[in-house]
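ok trying this again, last paste got cut off
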Amino acid sequence: MRIAMIGTGYVGLVSGACFADFGHDVTCVDKDADKIAALHRGQIPIYEPGLDELVAANVRAGRLGFTTDLTVPVGEADAVFIAVGTPSRRGDGHADLSYVYAAAREIGAALKGFTVVVTKSTVPVGTGDEVERLIRETNPDADTAVASNPEFLREGAAIRDFKFPDRIVIGTSDERARKVLGEIYRPLSLNQGPLMYTARRTAELIKYAANAFLATKITFINEMADLAEKVGADVQDVARGIGMDNRIGSKFLHAGPGFGGSCFPKDTRAIVQTAHDHDVPLRIIEAVLAVNDNRKRAMSRKVSHALGGNIRGKTVAVLGLTFKPDTDDMRDAPSIPLITGLIDMGAVVRAFDPVGMTQAKTELPDITYCDDAYDCAQGADVLVIVTEWVQFRALDLARLKGAMKQPVIVDLRNVYRPEQMAEYGFNYHSVGRG
């Protein structure tokens, strides 16, 4: 099949490379000429394990290409995927759909023959209706069907998620579109891939509902962590105990500093705004947002408490800046409000992240960036583990203690065991362990 992928961000580039790896002919389109030029040179604009090798292999095989002009690839395509950004709109929390609608107009003008236009970007319910209207307004003679095919990719594990999905949701009532998309995804299974066909609006809502529910699980266990600290329980055992119930499941029950990233914060805000527009209160999700925002701000107070309540003039070493491991994504990362709060309280902040420091410098320009974990810990009054990178899971604790001014660690990801830290003489503070 011939595929045009509009957008070479996280979703577009991963999806395009994986489709090409299935054997399809894929052209990725982006208006950013510098990004396209870099891709032609083999430079990947995002950090995702294995993506550089996947892109290079399919470029060499002639199945994957890049361009700034969508006219030819759209005109030749069997399916055109819209994978542009939908950030939160400033001021009201709605998804900003301007890039989606601009892409729809340009696609409409370039269509030739029957083509399935697919929204892969995360979009509110009803966006597919407007995409279809814009295409037909631009090109009344277009022979097209507009479908929804939301992505469910985890940053850091996106390639595996794409190739071994739990489900593939396809929202369309058009039989020709079902056939085309079924053929595109057919290589996932010799028999039958986990395809789920729904109405278009249902598919759009599935994506938001999934992210809102996962965000709720994270926020729930974080609140249980606060209670566990007060009553002398261990939230990790609580999570294990409830997670063994197959009605609940163990995933997304890891207490920490709050959720961040490119999906959960903006998608939970967007579904709340959609509900407001339709006079439907989503009290649980509204509470999830409020609790998560408060939690991220509270982490700097937790660090201050570990030093007796006053960190003015103290040096804080921060390990991990990205919102999760195996990505360079700083969007809504818990490290941002944490470090901002520490600076506001008068602390001096040093930080290290294995891949995220280039991105972090835009968000956090007023801190010192270090070469490794031990350089970061040098002379620190307290060390804070914010992101659970594998590099931080087996630190040389004796060397770490020797580098620090005071042996105080605040572990916001519960990477270490309290008894282990006690053996090395650390004053150790974790999350949800009384």
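PB: full thing came through this time. The chain has a mean pLDDT of 96.
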